[in-house]
């Protein structure tokens, strides 16, 4: 069913998210567990070529957002695995970020 939705959607980017939201808004609670389940179910039904086509159809900003989320989540996971936060000294010094 989901793969048919993907194939029928000409513009797969934001339209896919909008259509999935409308399809499941009254069936799921919207918590992290439901969203994870839905996302993994969609990915499970997609081929590599489907995913690459989806990425190809994204705007430049959407690609930056996608890669940004991937980097953020991957780094969070890596730091959590290394328990980096426990070894980091606390400092209240102002940071110059420019």
- As residue ranges, the low-confidence spans are 8-12
Count of DSSP E strands? 0
User: Please, how many helices?
Assistant: 6
Strand content is under 5%
Structural class: mainly alpha
Number of domains: 1
Largest sheet: none
Distance between the amino and carboxyl termini: 49 Å
Kindly provide the radius of gyration, computed on alpha-carbon positions and rounded to a whole number of angstroms. Answer: 18 Å
**Average pLDDT value?**
79
In short:
By secondary structure, this protein is mainly α. The protein is built from 6 helices and no strands.
Summarize this structure as a short list of keywords or feature phrases:
70% helix, 6 helices, globular, 98 residues, mainly alpha
Overall description:
The chain is an all-alpha fold and 98 residues long. It has one domain (2-82). It contains six helices and no strands. It has helices at residues 2-8, 13-24, 32-45, 48-56, 60-82, 84-87. It is globular, with a radius of gyration of 18 Å. The chain starts with a helix and ends in an 11-residue tail after the last helix.
């Amino acid at each position: 069913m989901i793969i048919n939705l993907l194939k029928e959607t000409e513009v797969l980017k934001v339209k896919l998210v909008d259509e999935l939201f409308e399809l499941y808004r009254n069936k799921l609670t919207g918590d992290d567990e439901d969203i994870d389940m839905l996302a993994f179910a969609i990915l499970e039904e997609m081929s590599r070529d489907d995913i690459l086509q989806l990425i190809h159809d994204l705007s430049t900003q959407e690609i930056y957002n996608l890669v940004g989320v991937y980097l953020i989540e991957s780094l969070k996971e890596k730091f959590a695995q290394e328990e980096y936060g426990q070894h980091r000294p606390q400092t209240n010094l102002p940071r110059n970020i420019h």
